[in-house]
Design goal:
The chain is an all-alpha fold and 122 residues long. The protein has one domain: Orthogonal Bundle (Rna Polymerase Sigma Factor, Chain: A), CATH 1.10.1740. Helices cover 65% and strands 0% of the residues. The chain is built from 5 helices and no strands. The longest helix has 20 residues.
Protein backbone atom coordinates (compact mmCIF):
# COMPACT_ATOMS: atom_id res chain seq x y z
CA UNK A 1 0.00 0.00 0.00
CA UNK A 2 1.32 3.45 -0.89
CA UNK A 3 1.87 6.06 1.80
CA UNK A 4 -0.79 8.32 0.28
CA UNK A 5 -3.38 5.54 0.59
CA UNK A 6 -2.34 4.81 4.16
CA UNK A 7 -2.55 8.49 5.05
CA UNK A 8 -6.00 8.87 3.48
CA UNK A 9 -7.35 5.71 5.12
CA UNK A 10 -5.87 6.01 8.59
CA UNK A 11 -5.44 9.74 9.33
CA UNK A 12 -9.02 10.38 10.57
CA UNK A 13 -8.96 7.21 12.68
CA UNK A 14 -5.58 7.98 14.20
CA UNK A 15 -6.54 11.56 14.96
CA UNK A 16 -9.74 10.43 16.77
CA UNK A 17 -7.69 7.86 18.67
CA UNK A 18 -5.15 10.49 19.72
CA UNK A 19 -7.87 12.96 20.74
CA UNK A 20 -9.09 10.34 23.21
CA UNK A 21 -5.57 9.73 24.49
CA UNK A 22 -4.09 13.23 24.73
CA UNK A 23 -6.90 15.69 24.04
CA UNK A 24 -7.75 17.77 21.04
CA UNK A 25 -5.08 20.42 21.66
CA UNK A 26 -2.24 17.92 21.11
CA UNK A 27 -3.87 15.41 18.75
CA UNK A 28 -3.29 17.22 15.47
CA UNK A 29 0.45 17.70 16.05
CA UNK A 30 0.86 14.13 17.24
CA UNK A 31 -1.08 12.83 14.23
CA UNK A 32 1.42 14.57 11.96
CA UNK A 33 4.28 13.10 13.97
CA UNK A 34 2.77 9.60 13.67
CA UNK A 35 2.53 9.89 9.89
CA UNK A 36 6.11 11.15 9.62
CA UNK A 37 7.18 8.02 11.54
CA UNK A 38 5.01 5.81 9.32
CA UNK A 39 6.51 7.37 6.18
CA UNK A 40 10.06 6.86 7.47
CA UNK A 41 9.44 3.29 8.58
CA UNK A 42 7.21 2.03 5.78
CA UNK A 43 10.13 0.52 3.85
CA UNK A 44 11.13 -1.47 6.92
CA UNK A 45 7.63 -2.76 7.72
CA UNK A 46 8.01 -6.53 7.56
CA UNK A 47 4.37 -7.53 7.81
CA UNK A 48 4.85 -9.57 10.99
CA UNK A 49 1.65 -7.90 12.17
CA UNK A 50 -1.18 -6.30 10.25
CA UNK A 51 -0.60 -2.82 8.88
CA UNK A 52 -3.26 -1.36 11.18
CA UNK A 53 -1.67 -2.95 14.25
CA UNK A 54 1.69 -1.46 13.28
CA UNK A 55 0.14 1.99 12.70
CA UNK A 56 -1.78 1.97 15.99
CA UNK A 57 1.35 0.85 17.86
CA UNK A 58 3.23 3.85 16.43
CA UNK A 59 0.33 6.13 17.43
CA UNK A 60 0.17 4.64 20.94
CA UNK A 61 3.90 4.96 21.52
CA UNK A 62 3.90 8.53 20.20
CA UNK A 63 1.02 9.45 22.53
CA UNK A 64 2.65 7.77 25.53
CA UNK A 65 5.92 9.60 24.84
CA UNK A 66 4.00 12.89 24.72
CA UNK A 67 2.11 12.10 27.93
CA UNK A 68 5.39 11.37 29.72
CA UNK A 69 7.08 14.55 28.53
CA UNK A 70 7.49 17.39 31.03
CA UNK A 71 6.29 19.87 28.39
CA UNK A 72 2.96 18.06 28.06
CA UNK A 73 2.48 17.92 31.82
CA UNK A 74 3.14 21.65 32.18
CA UNK A 75 0.72 22.42 29.36
CA UNK A 76 -2.03 20.27 30.87
CA UNK A 77 -1.54 21.74 34.33
CA UNK A 78 -1.83 25.25 32.92
CA UNK A 79 -5.14 24.54 31.17
CA UNK A 80 -8.30 24.39 33.26
CA UNK A 81 -10.62 21.54 32.32
CA UNK A 82 -13.54 23.30 30.68
CA UNK A 83 -15.83 22.85 27.72
CA UNK A 84 -13.50 25.16 25.80
CA UNK A 85 -10.33 23.14 26.48
CA UNK A 86 -12.12 19.81 25.98
CA UNK A 87 -15.22 20.10 23.79
CA UNK A 88 -16.27 16.55 24.72
CA UNK A 89 -17.43 17.95 28.06
CA UNK A 90 -20.09 20.07 26.34
CA UNK A 91 -21.63 17.23 24.36
CA UNK A 92 -19.99 13.82 24.74
CA UNK A 93 -21.97 12.46 21.77
CA UNK A 94 -21.42 15.27 19.31
CA UNK A 95 -20.73 14.92 15.57
CA UNK A 96 -17.13 15.94 16.29
CA UNK A 97 -16.71 12.94 18.57
CA UNK A 98 -19.03 10.26 17.20
CA UNK A 99 -19.51 7.16 19.29
CA UNK A 100 -18.50 4.10 17.35
CA UNK A 101 -19.15 0.47 18.25
CA UNK A 102 -15.52 0.19 19.44
CA UNK A 103 -16.21 2.96 21.98
CA UNK A 104 -19.04 1.06 23.66
CA UNK A 105 -17.87 -1.66 26.04
CA UNK A 106 -19.82 -4.91 26.09
CA UNK A 107 -22.31 -5.41 28.88
CA UNK A 108 -24.73 -8.02 30.15
CA UNK A 109 -24.96 -11.08 27.92
CA UNK A 110 -22.53 -9.69 25.38
CA UNK A 111 -19.91 -9.20 28.11
CA UNK A 112 -20.46 -12.74 29.38
CA UNK A 113 -20.14 -14.11 25.84
CA UNK A 114 -16.96 -12.07 25.25
CA UNK A 115 -15.37 -13.34 28.46
CA UNK A 116 -16.45 -16.91 27.72
CA UNK A 117 -14.97 -16.71 24.20
CA UNK A 118 -11.67 -15.31 25.50
CA UNK A 119 -11.42 -18.00 28.18
CA UNK A 120 -12.15 -20.69 25.60
CA UNK A 121 -9.15 -19.59 23.55
CA UNK A 122 -6.75 -19.98 26.50
Amino acid sequence: MRFEEIHETYRPKIERYLVRMVGEAEAEDLTQEVFVKIHRGLGEFKGDSSLSTWIYRIATNTALDALRSPKFRRTMEALPLTEETDPRLADPVSPDFPVTPEDTPPSGRSLKMSVTNVIATL
